[in-house]
Design a protein that fits this description.
The complex is a heterodimer of chains A (117) and B (114). Chain A is an all-beta fold and 117 residues long. Chain A contains no helices and 11 strands. In chain A, a hairpin with a 2-residue loop joins strand 7 and strand 8 (74-79). The chains are: A mainly beta (117), B mainly beta (114).
Chain lengths: 117, 114
């Protein structure tokens, strides 16, 4: 089965450090989503891309977070500088969306578990 | 706007008990509905889906019926197992939107004891 691959699976670092999380979407999927999961807030949508172009990043703190898709096989989420409140599990998901066919389910990666000390 | 509300957890059951997790939705358009499951340490996996009113999605003994009149999509299983312990998320996509964005409920933690 095709899978969404996220790296690293775990990351522990000190506050102030730059963190980069990577995602390889399923080949042929044209939409990539970044989510953050915490106990307090649940699952939050941070940003998403269609055909590598950002569609919406309103859920993302702009001052320290950035998301990009350098190519169709790689999506990145960066935090600089990181803070303890950024500790969470970050999920990437991909899906295939065509006009009038926005009912396909998304496929999720296993997440990056981030701890900022 | 679009939103999903599901019952608060945690839910604790004995093995072979009957499970219901309630889910209701609000949608501006005509949504497709989903249940995702998250096992410990893993990402969300699609459990079942329904794309139109009165459709029943089913998988691994779980079922949910798309009820447009009550805007509900409750998850049921007749006999739960310890291996069903996980977090369950109800979600919707507005089929009239090209954004393809999923709207999730808060999740319901299920623990099944032997």
């Amino acid at each position: 089965d095709a899978r969404v691959t996220q790296t690293p699976r775990h990351k522990v670092t000190e506050m102030g450090q730059e963190v980069t999380m990577r995602c390889q979407p399923i080949l042929g999927h044209n939409t990539v989503f970044w989510y953050r999961q915490t106990m307090m807030q649940g699952l939050e949508l941070l940003a998403y891309f269609r055909n590598r172009a950002p569609l919406d990043d309103s859920g993302m703190p702009k001052d320290r977070f950035s998301a990009e898709m350098p190519d169709a096989t790689l999506a990145t989420l960066k935090i600089q500088p990181s803070e303890p409140r950024d500790s969470a599990v970050y999920f990437c998901a991909s899906g295939l969306v065509h006009q009038g066919q926005a009912h396909q389910p998304q496929h999720f990666g296993d997440g990056t578990r981030l701890s900022i000390l | 706007g679009d939103s999903v509300t599901q019952m608060e957890g945690p839910v604790t059951l004995s093995e072979e008990a009957f499970l219901t997790i309630n889910c209701t939705y609000t949608a501006t358009g005509y949504p497709s509905l989903f249940w995702y499951v998250q096992y410990p340490g893993e990402g969300l996996q699609l459990l079942l889906k329904a794309t139109k009113a009165d459709d029943k999605g089913s998988n691994k003994g779980f079922e949910a019926t798309y009820r447009k009149e009550t805007t509900s999509f409750h998850l049921e299983k007749g006999s739960v197992q310890v291996s069903d312990s996980a977090v369950y998320f109800c979600a919707l996509i507005d089929r009239g939107s090209t954004l393809g964005r999923l709207y999730f409920g808060r999740g319901t933690q299920l623990t099944v004891w032997p």
